[in-house]
Write a structure and sequence with these properties.
The chain is α/β, with parallel strands linked by helices and 166 residues long. It has seven helices and seven strands.
Length: 166
């Protein structure tokens, strides 16, 4: 059983919550979300908000909080082979109540189909809200280019089709 080692990022100004499934081996090593350089999460989210891509965990945390984004994962622990979501067994969900008690979250997003599956299984009924499934930023989702991901994420998060003016 692998236990999620990374604390959620949120504060009282967080307005949206993005949930992944479970951190990759690289993210667990770095002790921060989306740590694998091939994962497009940080490039996509930076483009959505018209910002520079954050590099360090400190920059990433500041970026999230400055844009009202809370970030965590659906699962608190599971059996997993490496970083392969398809291998997840015996999943245990995270308790999202500290985020919802602190922040006025108006929308929940999940990063990919695995996060959606576990959100719907463990959290949707308890929270009484559906999550919007965004296309995964994982390099395994090779059918989606960075540009296509940015367009889909921007439309879902901001309601806009065009890039913000920097």
């Amino acid at each position: 059983m692998v236990v999620h080692p990374i604390a959620p990022v949120f504060d009282e100004n967080s307005r949206i919550l993005i949930l992944g499934s479970f951190p990759s081996v690289k993210s667990r090593e770095e002790m921060f979300f989306y740590g694998h350089p091939q994962n497009r999460f940080w490039r996509v989210l930076a483009a959505v908000f018209g910002a520079q891509t954050p590099e360090t965990p400190e920059e990433k945390r500041a970026f999230l909080l400055s844009h009202g984004v809370a970030l965590w994962d659906v699962l608190a622990s599971c059996e997993i082979e490496g970083s392969a979501d398809r291998s997840i067994k015996n999943a245990v969900p995270n308790d999202l109540s500290p985020i919802f008690k602190t922040a006025k979250i108006y929308q929940v997003f999940v990063n990919g189909k695995t996060a959606e599956k576990y959100y719907n299984k463990y959290m949707k009924k308890t929270l009484g809200r559906a999550a919007v499934c965004l296309p995964s930023t994982s390099p395994a989702n090779a059918a989606w280019s960075v540009e296509r991901l940015v367009k889909a994420w921007r439309a879902a998060i901001t309601g806009e089709d065009e890039a913000p003016i920097m």
